[in-house]
């Protein structure tokens, strides 16, 4: 088995372990130590959001589409990286930054229209267009709001 920590020591590229990897990845394991970068999860993803990230390790790219939590990435993986489908997929949530059109007083509700769980609600404010507010308890971190945002103002992170 290759010791990736030693390999990274001599490499100019760093692997960002804080990236959104895949749903149901066990927190007790270090993803980069067990993932063999075989690409099976990329091929199995029904929305094609799993892409090669830093060091060739799979990561989720919400700019393409959303995660439907189909569990196919976990089912095809030959390594003991994933939790059971009954567990919570991840602790990821969306956040909206200041470049949001609504924060610039331009009416836009694209993110709210795509949110299946209705975690993004719009609050009326005097003298402004309705402002987005994410109910973190309702947000699944699916990323459906990310690709539809015209200003790329939404980020999904742990």
Question: How would you describe this structure to a colleague?
Answer:
With 158 residues, this protein is of the alpha+beta class. 16% of the residues lie in helices and 14% in strands. It is built from five helices and six strands; from the N terminus they run H-H-H-E-E-H-E-H-E-E-E. The chain has helices spanning 4-9, 31-34, 40-44, 72-76, 110-114; strands at 50-52, 58-60, 93-96, 120-123, 131-134, 154-157. The strands form three sheets. A two-stranded antiparallel sheet has the order 1-2. Strand 1 and strand 2 form a beta hairpin. It is elongated, with a radius of gyration of 18 Å.
First-residue to last-residue Cα separation = 29 Å
The biggest sheet, with number of strands, parallel, antiparallel or mixed sense and barrel status, is: 2 strands, antiparallel
Spatial ordering of strands, largest sheet: 1-2
Helix content range = 10-25%
Rg, please?
A: 18 Å
Number of extended strands:
6
Q: Average pLDDT across residues?
A: 89
| Proportion of strand residues | 5-15%
Q: Give, in order, the helices and strands.
A: HHHEEHEHEEE
Going by helix content, strand content and strand pairing, the class is alpha+beta
Sum up the overall morphology in one term: elongated
Low-confidence runs: 11-17
Count of helices? Answer: 5
Subcellular location: Cytoplasm
Protein name: Ferredoxin-type protein NapF
Family: Belongs to the NapF family.
Binding site for [4Fe-4S] cluster 1: 35, 38, 41, 45
